[in-house]
């Protein structure tokens, strides 16, 4: 008997999603040529290398502590997530009639302490409380705070979020992600609180900074801090001790837009 030739995947076949026990997911997408070409061009545009480099004279040759250590696969995933975040911001739901807001349920104690887990509405696997607090910086991702009986106490409001005017002011000041070596523009950055909102940090531009999602994760999860010289207004990123035992400040230099 002759073997049957392998069948080509049907055009626009649905995406296969596999849920793993560790809370991660794998997706297998069967692309047609046109769709793959568009997707590849969009991903490559998000992953493009910096065209203009600003060198900090205090750290000649670059700084290992601020080097991007992501693999190509991790960078592609972050680029794809960034494109999807842009889609969420742009879609008000007025045309399709479907609300694109993401809801995150989290216990009050976990919100305040950053210890514990939260749940993305419609997704079974939990996320960490610290991840939920970081996600709350996006206007389309709203935390639903629960009491001890899992009853909603509060729905995140605009007081937690930076206003469009504040974001514009930070865009002029920061010019995009402030992390040394990162060239993500303001439109792809999150307005992050230096002192977390849940810990009493005010929602004002002095306590705000623009960070891309990847460096926002590093800032929060790796234990970085940000300090400002009151005399000059110069800002510095302070690494955690496990990255730099001396915690040497990294000066935040003006990037292309601010310059």
Structural notes for this entry:
The protein has helices spanning 33-46, 72-90, 108-113, 129-135, 164-174, 213-221, and strands spanning 16-19, 25-28, 102-107, 117-120, 126-128, 141-146, 152-155, 190-193, 208-211, 225-228, 235-238, 250-251. The protein is of the alpha+beta class and 259 residues long. It has two domains: 27-94 and 162-259, no CATH class; 101-161, no CATH class. A hairpin with a 5-residue loop joins strand 1 and strand 2.
Radius of gyration: 21 Å
Which stretches are low in confidence, meaning pLDDT under 50 for 5 or more residues running?
A: 50-57, 94-98
Estimated helix fraction: 25-40%
> How is the largest sheet built, in terms of strand order?
5-4-3-6-7
First-residue to last-residue Cα separation:
71 Å
- Basic shape: globular
State mean pLDDT (0 to 100 scale). Answer: 74
SSE order, one letter for each helix or strand: EEHHEHEEHEEHEEHEEE
Strand percentage, roughly? 15-25%
How many separate helices? 6
How many strand segments?
12
**Largest sheet report:** 5 strands, mixed
Structural class designation: alpha+beta
Domain module tally: 2
Protein name: HNH nuclease domain-containing protein
Domain HNH nuclease: 165-217
InterPro entries: DUF222, HNH_nuc
